[in-house]
Task: structure prediction
Amino acid sequence: MFGLGLQELLVILVIALVIFGPSKLPQIGSGLGKAIRDFKKGVSGDEADEAAKEGKKEDPKDLPRS
Result:
């Protein structure tokens, strides 16, 4: 993972803990996880499959006409 070892990750975690405090870290982690997930969805281009997994139905008016 980008050439980072366990020691480097621990140093980064300690620095983040000092800067943001223990109360903000879960919110930051959650936001980062959502951002990564959305980025992967956008890159893969399988939005129709993702919508089906989430139980969302596509409106036929929104589909491209051929």
